[in-house]
Amino acid sequence: MAERPYLDALMAGAPPGAAVLDLGCGAGEPIAGHLIGEGFRVTGIDTAPAMIGICRERFPGHDWRIADMRGLDLGRQFDAIAAWDSFFHLTGPDQRAMFGVFARHLRPGGGLLFTAGPAEGEAIGDMFGDPLFHYSLDPGEYDLLLRRAGFAVEQYREKDADCGDHTVWLARRL
Fold first, then answer.
1. Among 2, 27, 38, 72, which one is least packed by beta carbons within 10 Å?
2. Which CATH number is associated with domain 4-173?
């Protein structure tokens, strides 16, 4: 599993059974499935009812919710947040607003893991024959937004060849 080193770094030092918020969880694989396998409690958020239904079948006993990550307010904090291959489907303004959502849902010392593009821009990909929107801010702007929201960047890897050319951010809330 190519994402494993990042997930291990995200959860480093987390207590057994730590609570993780998976934003844009999809069908729960591979991110939520790995975290659950490691003994963490996952709350998964996705806008697709079919994906949440799959998660509920695959991983009963965890919290799966149909919701939009934009403006999310669950009224609680988590030990970690993962937004793997989901955050970059938001527009630039929506991404900028997400840093408040991240901070509101993350305990001090908690980790934030997300994927983005390597440079500012928009691209339209393809998923099963349907267009799929991707947007990225400039890495310098992500760094600034993280610092302003009370995060310290622990890792930034641009186009990690060992992880499917993902550009990965790992930050910790101060």
1. 2
2. 3.40.50.150
